Amino acid sequence: MDMFNASLPYLPLTFFVFVAGFVDSIAGGGGLITLPAYLAFGVPPALVLGTNKLSSSMGTLVAAAKFLKETRFKADFLFILIFVAAVGAFLGARAISLVSPEMIRYLLIATLPPIAIFLLWRRRFGLVDTSRQHSPNALLARSSGISFSVSFYDGLLGPGTGTFLALAYTRLCGFDLLRSTALAKLLNLTSNVAALAAFLYLGRVNVELGLAMGLAGMAGNYAGSHLALKKGAWVIRPMLAVICASLLLKVAWDLLK
Question: What residue ranges do the domains of the chain occupy?
């Protein structure tokens, strides 16, 4: 009852969290919707990031479980990628004082438009899994390199991490977009939980609201992952292009402010 009463003034927010979960489960970028929504509905800025991490972690857990159940990766392969991603995110967070976030944003502005055009132009991108062309050791090395570098970026800046992971796994490892999205969800969940632990320790989470919104996020992630598993790359690829364009607009806006 207390959790319901605490979340009642934010009831319309559940729609935005649901939509964000739906989009995020397919192509990443859910934070582009939830962070402005939390602020618009009066959540104190100091609690926004932590509360969002709680709700998004719950939703991503659903999507990751559903994707991984259907795509079937070996457990030792997944554990290695989780470990490498955790190290990358930690080092990225430590490197914030050494690398200018503005430099990373300029790099994103330069790279996002070609990625979006590529996704729209290459209609068969990610439809077929060609990962068997690589030896197991080569595939592990490529996947680990991607996991480390993109997670390093996640610790350093963050926006679009899931999108970049899915694209890189598809382009460089040969996984189809469905399997790439499954891996991206797992590693996103890893970084989300790690960040959530830090926010909880600092007391920067509205736990009641986060749990309530997490239920909406779980529903959105379930619906989105169900659609992605049913339609595959035909729905994931255009959604990735939309997310890339949205990220470009957000990064450009942040630089202009």
Answer: 2-256
